[in-house]
Design brief:
The chain is of the alpha/beta class and 321 residues long. It contains 16 helices and 10 strands. It has helices at residues 6-16, 53-62, 66-71, 80-92, 106-114, 130-138, 149-155, 157-165, 181-193, 209-216, 224-227, 242-251, 260-272, 280-291, 293-296, 312-320; strands at residues 26-27, 38-43, 73-76, 96-101, 118-122, 141-142, 172-176, 198-204, 254-258, 300-305. The protein has a 6-stranded mixed sheet with strand order 1-2-10-7-8-9, sandwiched between helices. Strand 3 (73-76), helix 4 and strand 4 (96-101) form a beta-alpha-beta unit. Helix 2 (53-62) packs across helix 7 (149-155) and helix 8 (157-165) packs parallel to helix 9.
């Protein structure tokens, strides 16, 4: 299976320019540790749709032929890929149908509809099967959330930007893992552009299928009942994709996990100290910096805050805890 290369990544960077924001790499002096460990944050929560997903979605849709655009697209997502595809489709004048599980946060459903997409709500176990049925019935182009080279390359522009902006002493980059698109592209970009940097994935303990897969050397699926226990709704994918797994095994140094309480605490830390609104899924990477130092090693870290789309009531709850 062909992995994305620097040419793919730079082509994606050109396609998404003007749609995805080139987010800054923020220094966090408030997070510096007595042992000299330092943190930089990559706030993808500042994207137009509130998460990194706009990068892959725009790269995929911008590469459609005129005939494919005329047919429209279908995608499945619990929220962030949904919003991204809807927004990219609106920008390009393409019809979008989005399949979302009935466990999706209301704010993500509302935001997806606000970009003009048709939203279909289905039971969680049908999220990944209904799009194929709709594509076969109506001729839509299926835009998967992670198992696609255009998606991987688009998400990988996060890694290109980190490589371009990072201080020379950066040694470790922390990236959340779900279906694997973000960490696949980001790890490829970093290993190809600055190979001395370690890339470590971060998952919730309650949805650690990617960690198990990487350590066993074979893709391992968790059930919906298992992964849907975590508060990090964007990281509930039962298994990493086929193409992302190839990138994980080639480029990712390790995957660590964080607890539900650590995720909750980090949402509050990022809001109070970093002045960043992060959804639970977006907080897992910095959570590893704050809570799993003994597993990580390293001294100068960058952590991807992958998204900030969370219900205001949940944010208030986590801040009040």
């Amino acid at each position: 299976m062909t992995l994305v290369d620097l040419e793919d990544l730079r082509a994606a960077q050109r396609r998404i320019a003007g749609t995805a924001v080139r987010t800054p790499l923020l220094p966090c002096p408030w997070a510096e540790r007595p042992d000299g460990r330092r943190l930089w944050l990559k706030p993808e929560s500042l994207q137009p749709t509130g998460a990194f997903k706009i990068r892959g979605a725009m790269n995929r849709l911008a590469a459609l032929t005129a005939e494919e655009r005329s047919r429209g697209v279908v995608a499945q997502s619990s929220g962030n890929h949904a919003q991204a595809v809807a927004y990219a489709a609106q920008r390009l004048g393409v019809k979008a149908v989005i399949v979302m599980p009935d466990t999706s946060p209301a704010v993500k459903i509302e935001n997806t509809r606000s970009f003009g997409a048709e939203v279909l709500i289905v039971p969680a176990e049908q999220r990944d099967t209904v799009p194929a049925e709709l594509a076969a019935k109506h001729g839509y182009v299926w835009v998967p959330p992670y198992d696609d080279p255009y998606i991987v390359a688009g998400q990988g522009t996060v890694g290109l930007e980190i490589a371009e902006d990072a201080p020379d002493e950066l040694d470790t980059v922390l990236v959340p893992v779900s279906g694997g698109g973000l960490i696949s592209g980001t790890a490829a970009a970093l290993k190809l552009a600055c190979p001395g940097v370690r890339v470590i994935g971060v998952e919730p303990e309650l949805a650690a299928d990617a960690q198990e897969s990487l350590r066993k050397g074979v893709r391992t699926a968790w059930t919906v009942d298992q992964t849907y226990r975590t508060i990090a709704d964007g990281l509930r994918t039962p298994s990493v994709g086929v193409l992302p797994f190839e990138h994980l095994t080639a480029y990712v140094d390790d995957i660590v996990t964080v607890s539900e309480q650590e995720i909750r605490d980090t949402v509050a830390i990022l809001a109070r100290r970093g002045r960043l609104v992060a959804e639970p899924s977006g907080a897992v990477a910095p959570a590893a910096y704050f809570h799993r130092a003994e597993e990580l090693g390293g001294r100068v870290f960058a952590a991807v805050v992958s998204g900030g789309n969370l219900d205001p009531a949940l944010l208030a709850e986590l801040l009040a805890a």
